[in-house]
Amino acid sequence: MAGEREHPNQDVAIRHRLAGKQQPFAIFFGCADSRVAAEIIFDRGLGDLFVVRTAGHTVDSSVLGSMEFGVGVLGIPLIVILGHDSCGAVNAAVDAMTSGDLPGGFVRDIVERVMPSVLAASKHGEVGIDQIEAEHVRQTAALVAQRSHLIADHIAAGTLGIIGATYNLRDGQAGVVTAIGIDVT
């Protein structure tokens, strides 16, 4: 988003209106990185986005369950998956692939969930970190569409689309890298 920000839907009246019911227009699935706050990046307010965040926007059953709630219960027609440059999870996966050393604890699970994207990027000759991050967004979008029957059914019915984009921390711009069930041209 370029230009002056409006900071919509953040006043007391909006909070009171939303106290009884939410009707977000999009699910935002992004990295837990503190520099990638959906409401700030897209200049949205309370009730606009149903936000799900994990390190490296890695997918697990809690993520899919949250998205299915958003689509199936709240009727949200759009999922936005946002990756970003300087992603610690992607960098850790690249480092692990290069060195053969995996981190310990639950960080290992995150790195292992990102590794298929690193391998896919390498298979396509994409070796730059920006290319790998974009591939991780594409892989994440495809995984969400494939693993959840509810989401796949809504995409097939034409009632849901997924947009995958990458965000540049320095210039504040997001660019689409993939779309499923929606035309962004």
Automatic annotation (TrEMBL):
It is an enzyme of class 4 (lyase). InterPro entries: Carbonic_anhydrase (IPR001765), Carbonic_anhydrase_CS (IPR015892), Carbonic_anhydrase_sf (IPR036874). The keyword Zinc applies. One of its GO terms (biological process) is carbon utilization. The keyword Metal-binding applies. Binds 1 zinc ion per subunit. Keywords: Lyase, Metal-binding, Zinc. PROSITE patterns: PROK_CO2_ANHYDRASE_1. Zn(2+) binds at C31, D33, H84, C87. GO terms for molecular function: carbonate dehydratase activity; zinc ion binding. It catalyses: hydrogencarbonate + H(+) = CO2 + H2O. Its cofactor is Zn(2+). Its EC number is 4.2.1.1. Belongs to the beta-class carbonic anhydrase family. Catalyzes the reversible hydration of carbon dioxide to form bicarbonate. This is carbonic anhydrase. It comes from Candidatus Phosphoribacter hodrii.
